[in-house]
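Consider the following assembly input.
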Amino acid sequence: MQTTRRNFLKLAAGPAATLAGFSRFGAMNALAQGGGYKALVCVFMFGGNDGHNTVIPKTAAEFNNYRTIRGNLALPDQNTPVLDVTTGNGVMYGLNGGMNGIHPFWAQKKLAIVANTGLLVQPTTRAQYLANAAPVPTNLFSHSDQTQQTQSGIATASGGTGWGGRTADAAQGLNGASTFPAAISMSGPALFCTGSIVKAASLVPGFDLTPAGMNVWPASAAAARMTGLQEVLALDSGLSLVQAANKVRKDAIDLNAMLKGLSSSNSLPVTFPGTSIGQQLQQVAQIIQLRAQTGMSRQVFFCTLGGFDTHGNQSWTHWDLLTRMSAAMGVFQAAMDAMGLSGQVTTFTESEFGRTLQPNTSGTDHGWGNHHFVMGGAVKGGEMYGTFPQMALGGPDDAGSRGAHIPTTALDQYGATLGKWFGLDPAALAAVFPNLGNFAVKDLGFLA
Amino acid sequence: MGATRQLSAYVSVSPNTIVWSVNGINGGNSTYGTISASGLYAAPAAAPPDNVVTVRATSTAFAAKFGSASIAITQKVPWVWSTNPSSFPAGTVTLNVNGAAFVPTTIIKAGGQAWATTYVSPTSLKATGTVNATGPLAITATNPGNGAVTSQPFMATVTAPPPPAPPTISSINPSSVQAGAFSLTILGSGFVAGSQVSIGGQAAATTYVSASQLTAPGSTNAAVGTLIPVTVANPAPNAATSNAFSIKVAATPAPNVSKIKAGRFLEQAAFGPTPAEMDKILQMGTDAWLDQQLTMAETPIPVPASMGEARGQYLNRLAHAPDQVRQKTIWALGQIIVVSSNKNNYPAEYVPYLQILSKHAFGNYRALLREIATSPQMGKYLDMANSIKPGPTSQPNENFVRELKQLFTIGLYQLNPDGSNALDGQGKPIPTYSQNDIRQFALAATGWTYPGANATGINWENFSGPLQPRPTLHDTTAKTLLNGATLPPGQTPDQDLDGFLDNLFLHPNTAPFVATRLVRAFASSNASPAFIQRVAAVFVNNGANVRGDLKAVVKAILTDPEARQDTATPNQGRLKDPIYQTIALTRALNGQVSASNQRVYLFVGMGQMPLTPNSVFGFYSPMYRIPGSALFGPEFQIYSPTEAVLRGNLFQEILSGYAAGDFSADLTPFQAVAGNTAQLVDAVDDVLTYGRMGSPLRAAIAKAVDAQNDNSQRVFTALYLGALSGQYAVQY
């Protein structure tokens, strides 16, 4: 029988059973003890990050084109310096000064850029797009749809599962019989983490899921109150929504028992920033640190940072967002280095879309392709993958006239490269990304 | 000790005088006793350690001639004459021992075992001990110490112990049960740890509380009036079964139909019932109440000094404003047309938006759209303010017109009149607009700025009045709208704005689109297409050939037969969102939501910081489906385990009184019946679920209540478990 988390939760209904459950996930998986552990950590920039002001071409001609088109949004400006990086074949680019938290990892070859990547159904040229000659993602430029598609990994339909969850599904065999949640969102329920086999879990960093009001004297009264709650939540009212509501509360009790059973004596080797993204990544590091107790050898994590929908007043806002993100990511990488897990944990960025190269008055509008970062010891870093777009309005990469660039690398390829490193075989990757077959290159090569 | 004894000696030589000594001391001493010249020995007052003394009579004539005798000095010898009782069953017993020469240190032994002995008098003792063997039992008394001495035994008789009393049931709580599951508390005597309760002949999972109390769950589907015998069986070696004590199957109380009707109506039309509002509806009926609401004066919405105050005042209005249906409509419209204080973070940038929703709540959707579009609040939030005609390095901002289409009016796909997607020949949904359409609308929406000093150009953010048109910054080309409509070239900003708003307002999607969202907010996440279509039809025509009459639409929702279906169907209802459920709990308990509320921040963790959704998509999508289910459940999008626990934790603060300054609750009606479990659960069921809890939920709560130590904990337990139940989480 395939043991799903739901099955485990049933087993773990009572205190005694819960203890049995813990010893089950502690004991089962030798892989987790040795070098077999791997985790994927997604940092999702909600709102559509402006990739054009995150990675800037520094070759003279393209830099000038960029400055001209970007006008008063062009970097460097009075807020934001540009941090130079050079690719393996000597091409210079600049990172937004807000990326200083992870910029040092470029030189350490732990950081790579995947250029102009995004949602595609198949490779698409400007001519095809303008002539409606190729299928493209539905409702391009719409936050809700592109957010959903970026998380579902399916550009042609709104799926009910996410590619993080499906990747965890496919790696389920590597987790043995461990039943700890395999895909965990640190930012509320997330489609990205929802799988068909594994159940997504969401956690607020540092939060204790023990319901309040359960301590009362004498102990028998406290026990009866908690038992009463469990009985209340187990009743079958015959009403679908009531059942679904009860299940959420019951999940909370069961999940709390699992987390409480994990060792709390562990401490992390570094101090994380107090920002939301910092605290999310800290909790990821803690759960990774508990891998021996959880018995997990493959885990997917989802963290988010919002506010990237910079239609106006972009300059300072954008620098500030990137500063918070890169500071947290940098500390996270330092933690993985200190824990000896650098090569086993790969962090990557996502966002629903990029933004127009041409600004509006003080901001940018919804675009399409975007630049993303992959970070970790397994990354063949200090390199740019994919094709950097031409700085031209109405140019060969433009979906229109404002520099909403048609991606030259698909999310499917980006995700499949991560998935292959995670341990998925070609058949599994094809199942996670249904449109992957439309692309010749299925491994972008940025992971060793 | 202390006794005397006369000794004599015969001496056959002359002179026949002798000298008496004790242990070699002439005349003896106080330690070993004295002896007189005439041979009278007096024992010492206390027995010496070497309690045998030698008394010697030595001839005065011949010192080598002597005669001697040994005298043992003992404690006083006690006597045991009798015990009361003298015959007793095995086990632990206390005996009154009658005898003589008892001293305070006298020890009673039974069969050689020392018993705990209490000295009463020289002739009476009490002794307690345990004896297991039956038959004769030697009772002796020992006076301990130097020269200890034990009495002659008195033979008592140990009889066989009687069998333990059989279990007896004296009462059962409750004495009658309803069909379904229940939990019994059995009171009586003679219960032991292995006692087994049987209910109607079926062994029940028994919990031993004490020798006089057991609990056991049961269930029945027997007819009303059936007597169900309950017995308690004790296990071997003293197996015995109690008397059969019957409980009666009572009729499930007829649901209070009018109360359910009123409660459900107030859940939809308002933020749940208060006791007063419930009474009012029970008196005047839902129709008259609704008509009164729809003509009630608007509760003013002041612009306070801070967003913190604005949030507190908002919650206070939802809880206490008399025009509840309007407040509910503001809340529902605010889920369609969204402004968030995460961008508009000063009251002047935000609160007037609520005033606009309030003003038009019972007005016309077209007028609402017009005032929203030209409000500086929306102008800032979705960037229509200062979006100007195309220039060398700038293009019109598309944000407002995109969300106006996608979220405020028509949505992404063409809809049938019942809200379902219209499909093309291949069964695929048909998009309502393209990227080019977005651009056309964005061009039409150019040329608006904030009020301010510059009468012809752009002004910086200013929220003192509506946006103002700037014809010179407006794109005056012709534009193509949806469904073949066009805007001619050369129009003013106002003309183009009204043109594209009409284009969307008159779009066939708008009625079912708005109807779907309002029905999900007011009534049910999974309303039938027919329900949507009936409401959409009223949006199209209110009966007086007016389109977009929101008062008629709200009334159509609240009076629809499907909304008024008071017997729950399996997929009925909507999950209460955090703000709604918290307000409703406070109202149900006749409490107060403070306008200067200090606990608003707690809603952040529940995913619903008041007035601060994450984006223009609101706190949750009206199209969200329950994970793993085909059913819609918009509010489930912010109901993860974490968020559910945080919501419950706020309820704990409210119900325990910790939050009283922010969210209070009047618990006196519950405290009045706190001692009676059934009445307490009745009261909670009545207030939270209008008597619809059902036996299993009531029994689970009752069992937890019965385990509590005092009345305040009983009240808290009943309300807390009721508030955490799925039946209270869902408005059904």
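Chain A has two domains: 5-207+262-438, 211-251. Ask yourself how this observation constrains the way the partners meet.
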